[in-house]
Write the structure tokens for this entry.
Amino acid sequence: MTDGQFRSLPLEDFHKAAGARFGGFAGWSMPLTYPPGVMKEHLHTREHAGLFDISHMKLFEVFGLGAAALLSRACPLDASGLEPAQSKYTFFLTETAGIIDDLIVTRLGPERFMVVANAGNAATDEAHLKAIAKEFAVTVKPLDRVFLALQGPDAADVLAKAGIPTDALIFMHGIEPRPNWFLSRSGYTGEDGFEIGLPEVDARQLATTLLEDPRVQWIGLAARDSLRLEAGLCLHGQDITPDENPASAGLMWAISKDVRASGGFVGAEALGKILAEGPAEKRVGLKPEGRQPVRAGTALFDADGNPAGRVTSGGFGPSAAAPVAMGYVDAALAKPGTRLFADVRGTKIPVDVSPLPFTPHRYRKG
């Protein structure tokens, strides 16, 4: 633990040596920024390759005869229909269809899956999954791994030069290239990139090798946040919580029509009712007028001064070269171009509803 309050990353000494400024996040002491600063770190990732330590996130191996059945019950997902190495974005839902956590599930074998969960929800997710697992012939095993993400247009070439070829891997696919390693072509920046879970001793060697490449530099949590916001990607605990559902959050693309129809997952009945009635509010992109960012928690109003919604994430987008935000608005106001007003310390700032993402995704899909 750090300061008796936050857990320390296994590679904390690397970050201290790199001049990181630390702060608390989801129970961990995390590198927020490095000497170049948020703006340069953000742009470096968009232009070259950023290395992120995301070891606060949790990996679970799920294996056994009932592994696919368990995951199809715990998530709105047809786990048995996943191809080998295929990854799928999905959720744990409450019985009322609230989002407990968003996850990525990857099929590693006929009866083996990897589940990647968010840091702040790791204990909740483990308890939730194990409670459902009692009904199935399955083992849920939390893994002790360092988790690194390499993101940006140079990421694939950098890994190849480090002896890790990735040409056969496309977006949202994952493999085990070495014993106790998990490598997926995924990330949370909107760029092509990879996430790698591996033992600490291997992680130290890999990080050292990657950082010898001039195209690679450490990137902190602050730039990761601005990158994912520009990409229109949700942060659990802000943009999605147990108080929001996949329909309101604009995430129904992650649940196939067949899975919706089967209704075999936790929260299916409640989600079906929400879809039938239509969600009362919707997550949208928001573009403030001028240069003043609007932050999470800012209230939104319509042209007549009536409450219209709230901002859940907001800041300055270095690649968009403008303030950007996301939030929830009344469903009737969710059309792009709708003019709303954000109350920033008593000043009403004009904000237009905008399509997402703010910067194009550049995933390698083929």
About this structure: The chain has a mean pLDDT of 97. The first strand starts at residue 7 and ends at 8. The longest helix spans residues 122-133. The radius of gyration is 20 Å.
